[in-house]
Fold this protein.
Amino acid sequence: MAELSFTEEELKEIEQLKAKFPTAKAATLQVLWVAQRKYGHVEPEVQNLVAETLDVPKSHVHGVASFYTQYYKEEKGKFVLDVCTCLSCQLCGGYDILHHLEEKLGIEAGETTDDGMFSIQSVECLGACGYAPMLQVTNGVYVNNLTKEKVDTLIDNLKNGKMPEFESMAMPELEKRNQAASE
Amino acid sequence: MAQDWKSFEPLLIPDIPNLQQIEVYEGNGGYDALKKILNDQNEWSRDNVVNEVKQANIRGRGGAGFNAGLKWSFMPDPDGGPRYLACNGDESEPGTFKDRKIFEFNPHLFIEGALIAAYAMTIDTIYVYIRGEYISWVEKFQKAVDDAYEKGYLGENIMGTDISIDLEVTYGAGAYICGEETSMLESLEGKRGYPRVKPPFPAQKGLWGRPTTINNIETLANVPLVINNGAQWYSDLGAEEHPGPVLYGISGHVNQPGVYEYPTGVPVLELINDVAGGIRGGKDLKALIPGGSSTPVLRADQLEGVTMNSDSLKDAGSMMGTAGMVVMDEDTDMVDVLWRIAHFYHHESCGQCTPCREGTGWLEKVLLKIKNGEGEMKDLDLLLDVGNQMEGRTICALADAAVWPVRHTINRFRDEFEARCKKSTHAVA
Ligand SMILES: Cc1cc2nc3c(=O)[nH]c(=O)nc-3n(C[C@H](O)[C@H](O)[C@H](O)COP(=O)(O)O)c2cc1C
Ligand code: SF4
Ligand code: FES
């Protein structure tokens, strides 16, 4: 890999992140995020860049990067689909969604398609249990209340470079009231 | 509990469009509680605020149900050095999805509550730690924080007083254990989320060795309600020993899943059947996990007359936890469910303590064997035995949280587990 570095702008962002805390070390998680957004992963070279930038031991950054599941310790697909299969999602067909994706993309959970477009992962509860089954796209937007059709549309859209939009899941009781009021 | 709980008007997330916008919040009485305190600091001395909140008996909404005001009173006297409030927005207990509603729909209520808490405990810096997966909500919440700074509710000389309080938003990167309070402190310090041995307790030595109080997001959102309406009013809402409004997250096999706000003490069966629209496909209810995955499962026949508050749930054999209610219909395979819960705790064990690291692994492995039809009767006793050896022998409560579902699901659905084990014996024979 070529020599890695942060741009002036990124360094400015990093200074702002450091200013949130009394120590530079405390910004480790946040700077790993900056690095992952830039490089798409935090392989060892990227971890070293973070360590040098914060002036903390490489072993410290390595320890942090390996502890947290959202950091990609190896290169992943352009889109990482984190399918929740935990308790509520399991009850509502989370595994069916996972298997549908596996079949559709011809890979298993934990793998990446040959063209480097998609990775699939089976993940723990994402805090969207009432909107199960659901998945998260590359540590970003949540896609809720999945059906096979909704998954198919999502894949088509992603292939065309169209990211899903944030779905606001309102409080159902308020929705019901508002509906009643507007009728 | 009043009969008319269904007509309760939500207080934490009231039915006001765009309440996340600071002007709308202000226009509806927002930041009045903070003003009330800061404008009359004799009447509302720091001690008086702590006492009022203690009297109200806001029970922690993060799972343990500890009296918030009492917790605040554990902070030592100020010595001039930094003191912290760490707000727990890690929200990772399976079945729990309510704090994100506050970030999205009423962030200023929480900010106001956190400010009142910081004032009461002479705290200068508030950290809000949000789970990394909630990045969309981090962004929404950051906007609310920026607005509060702009309006002078945060920062130097709040509303022209000599009080200065900062609030920093930060987020994790995927680790359930960071919801455990001392693990969250480690993560805030930029480290692996290894829970700390207590004592010392965070009030003595918390963030960077300084006095720190940890509260859940929903807990703090209750604080302005108490200041605006008084402790007496608050403690009259809902169940006597566990008062106030609660965000009930209802998921699983119901027609209308979602987060609903009602007082504590409402009947479990009515929440499932009337509020959440009953069981999908007209099926029968089989079981309920009342407050997140670690709270013991209850069979449908154990739910008659049970209400959502700590005493009633304790009598029934479970706990209030996070009020994340997971509903299961008659076709649910309890072996599958328990295996998935065990998988979760094994995956999320930080590995520091041998009983937890090894024990959660064993629980998952043996349950997988039973699930795959290869279990034997003695495996059920092995599971209970492993659980007994884990409980109370570890640094944090994750190990206990892993054991309770195993113990209670096996005991309460023993037939189903035995049938699965018997089947495999026959198959081998
Ligand atoms: C394994 C484990 C995970 C936890 N996860 C959370 C969490 O995600 N959010 C939370 O508020 N509390 C969580 N807690 C509880 C916290 O340790 C702590 O009791 C709580 O944040 C205190 O706030 P409260 O008193 O306002 O409820 C967890 C506890 C344990 C043992
Ligand atoms: S009980 Fe488990 S999660 Fe908690 S500190 Fe020990 S090993 Fe880590
Ligand atoms: S169980 Fe899937 S989001 Fe909670």
